[in-house]
Amino acid sequence: MKRILIIVGSVYGSTMQVANYISRKLDKYGYVSEVTESSSLENVKKSNLLLIMTATTGQGDIPQNITPFVDEIKESQEDLNDINYAIISFGDSGYGPTFCNSGRIIQSILENRNGNCVIPPFEIDTVEYLDPEEPINIWCENYIDKL
Protein backbone atom coordinates (compact mmCIF):
# COMPACT_ATOMS: atom_id res chain seq x y z
CA MET A 1 0.00 0.00 0.00
CA LYS A 2 1.23 3.45 -0.85
CA ARG A 3 1.69 5.83 2.05
CA ILE A 4 0.76 9.45 1.33
CA LEU A 5 1.82 12.22 3.66
CA ILE A 6 -0.45 15.25 3.33
CA ILE A 7 1.13 18.42 4.68
CA VAL A 8 -1.35 21.27 5.06
CA GLY A 9 -0.65 24.99 4.95
CA SER A 10 -3.75 26.58 6.40
CA VAL A 11 -4.62 30.00 7.78
CA TYR A 12 -8.23 29.69 8.93
CA GLY A 13 -8.66 25.92 8.83
CA SER A 14 -10.58 25.41 5.59
CA THR A 15 -7.57 23.87 3.83
CA MET A 16 -7.26 21.41 6.72
CA GLN A 17 -10.91 20.44 6.30
CA VAL A 18 -10.38 19.78 2.60
CA ALA A 19 -7.20 17.80 3.37
CA ASN A 20 -9.15 15.56 5.74
CA TYR A 21 -11.78 15.12 3.02
CA ILE A 22 -9.20 14.07 0.42
CA SER A 23 -7.53 11.80 2.96
CA ARG A 24 -10.77 9.88 3.41
CA LYS A 25 -11.13 9.60 -0.38
CA LEU A 26 -7.54 8.37 -0.74
CA ASP A 27 -8.12 5.77 1.96
CA LYS A 28 -11.16 4.49 0.02
CA TYR A 29 -8.89 4.03 -3.01
CA GLY A 30 -6.52 1.86 -0.99
CA TYR A 31 -3.90 4.42 -0.02
CA VAL A 32 -2.78 5.01 3.55
CA SER A 33 -2.77 8.74 4.22
CA GLU A 34 -1.70 10.93 7.09
CA VAL A 35 -2.69 14.59 7.43
CA THR A 36 -0.44 16.97 9.34
CA GLU A 37 0.30 20.68 9.61
CA SER A 38 3.98 20.18 10.24
CA SER A 39 6.55 17.59 9.35
CA SER A 40 10.20 17.08 8.60
CA LEU A 41 12.13 16.06 5.55
CA GLU A 42 13.04 12.83 7.34
CA ASN A 43 9.34 12.00 7.80
CA VAL A 44 8.63 12.76 4.14
CA LYS A 45 11.23 10.18 3.12
CA LYS A 46 9.19 7.48 4.87
CA SER A 47 6.25 8.13 2.51
CA ASN A 48 5.69 7.11 -1.08
CA LEU A 49 4.19 10.49 -1.90
CA LEU A 50 4.18 13.97 -0.42
CA LEU A 51 0.93 15.83 -1.09
CA ILE A 52 1.13 19.49 -0.15
CA MET A 53 -2.18 21.29 0.18
CA THR A 54 -1.71 24.97 0.84
CA ALA A 55 -3.65 28.17 1.08
CA THR A 56 -2.06 31.45 0.02
CA THR A 57 -1.98 34.28 2.50
CA GLY A 58 -1.00 37.96 2.57
CA GLN A 59 0.66 39.02 -0.64
CA GLY A 60 1.10 35.51 -2.01
CA ASP A 61 2.84 34.11 1.06
CA ILE A 62 3.13 30.62 2.47
CA PRO A 63 1.03 30.04 5.62
CA GLN A 64 3.08 30.29 8.82
CA ASN A 65 2.32 26.78 9.99
CA ILE A 66 4.29 25.16 7.13
CA THR A 67 7.00 27.79 6.81
CA PRO A 68 9.46 25.79 8.99
CA PHE A 69 9.01 22.73 6.76
CA VAL A 70 9.41 24.74 3.56
CA ASP A 71 12.51 26.45 5.04
CA GLU A 72 13.98 23.04 5.87
CA ILE A 73 13.62 21.95 2.25
CA LYS A 74 14.96 25.24 0.94
CA GLU A 75 18.01 25.16 3.20
CA SER A 76 18.69 21.48 2.66
CA GLN A 77 21.54 20.57 0.38
CA GLU A 78 20.01 17.15 -0.27
CA ASP A 79 19.05 15.95 -3.69
CA LEU A 80 15.35 15.08 -3.36
CA ASN A 81 15.08 13.05 -6.56
CA ASP A 82 13.62 10.15 -4.55
CA ILE A 83 10.76 12.33 -3.24
CA ASN A 84 7.53 12.07 -5.27
CA TYR A 85 5.17 14.96 -4.69
CA ALA A 86 2.00 16.70 -5.79
CA ILE A 87 0.68 20.15 -4.88
CA ILE A 88 -2.85 21.45 -4.49
CA SER A 89 -3.06 25.22 -3.94
CA PHE A 90 -5.95 27.40 -2.86
CA GLY A 91 -6.23 31.08 -3.64
CA ASP A 92 -8.38 33.99 -4.70
CA SER A 93 -8.00 34.88 -8.39
CA GLY A 94 -8.81 38.48 -7.51
CA TYR A 95 -5.22 38.82 -6.28
CA GLY A 96 -3.92 38.48 -9.84
CA PRO A 97 -0.27 37.48 -10.04
CA THR A 98 -0.14 36.22 -6.45
CA PHE A 99 -3.03 33.79 -7.02
CA CYS A 100 -2.02 30.42 -5.50
CA ASN A 101 1.50 31.77 -5.13
CA SER A 102 2.35 29.68 -2.06
CA GLY A 103 1.97 26.49 -4.09
CA ARG A 104 4.09 27.98 -6.86
CA ILE A 105 6.84 28.91 -4.38
CA ILE A 106 6.86 25.40 -2.91
CA GLN A 107 6.84 23.89 -6.42
CA SER A 108 9.90 25.95 -7.34
CA ILE A 109 11.77 24.92 -4.18
CA LEU A 110 11.04 21.23 -4.73
CA GLU A 111 12.05 21.50 -8.40
CA ASN A 112 15.34 23.15 -7.37
CA ARG A 113 16.01 20.18 -5.08
CA ASN A 114 15.16 17.71 -7.89
CA GLY A 115 11.91 16.47 -6.36
CA ASN A 116 9.74 14.39 -8.67
CA CYS A 117 6.39 16.05 -9.41
CA VAL A 118 4.10 13.12 -10.29
CA ILE A 119 1.11 15.16 -11.50
CA PRO A 120 0.70 18.81 -12.55
CA PRO A 121 0.11 21.30 -9.73
CA PHE A 122 -3.61 21.84 -9.16
CA GLU A 123 -4.87 25.35 -8.34
CA ILE A 124 -8.30 25.99 -6.84
CA ASP A 125 -9.89 29.42 -7.10
CA THR A 126 -11.89 29.94 -3.92
CA VAL A 127 -13.95 32.59 -5.71
CA GLU A 128 -15.05 30.13 -8.38
CA TYR A 129 -15.69 27.24 -5.99
CA LEU A 130 -17.54 28.07 -2.82
CA ASP A 131 -17.48 24.35 -1.97
CA PRO A 132 -13.82 23.25 -2.30
CA GLU A 133 -14.85 19.59 -2.25
CA GLU A 134 -16.14 20.02 -5.82
CA PRO A 135 -12.70 20.68 -7.38
CA ILE A 136 -11.15 18.05 -5.09
CA ASN A 137 -13.54 15.50 -6.57
CA ILE A 138 -12.41 16.62 -10.04
CA TRP A 139 -8.77 16.23 -8.95
CA CYS A 140 -9.48 12.74 -7.64
CA GLU A 141 -11.22 11.69 -10.85
CA ASN A 142 -8.30 12.91 -12.96
CA TYR A 143 -5.26 12.08 -10.85
CA ILE A 144 -5.84 9.65 -8.01
CA ASP A 145 -4.83 6.65 -10.10
CA LYS A 146 -1.57 8.41 -11.08
CA LEU A 147 -0.31 8.65 -7.52
From TrEMBL:
Looking at the Swiss-Prot or TrEMBL record, what is one Pfam family this protein matches? Answer: Flavodoxin_1
Which cofactor does this sequence's record say it needs? FMN
**Which residues does UniProt call coiled coil?**
none
Q: Which Gene3D superfamilies match?
A: 3.40.50.360
Sequence ranges assigned to domain Flavodoxin-like in this UniProt record: 4-144
Q: Which domain of life is it from?
A: Bacteria
The keyword Flavoprotein is assigned to this record: yes
The yes or no answer to whether the keyword Flavoprotein is present is yes
Sorted alphabetically, the keyword list is: Flavoprotein, FMN
What is the name of the protein in this document?
Flavodoxin domain-containing protein
What is the species listed in this Swiss-Prot or TrEMBL entry?
Photobacterium arenosum
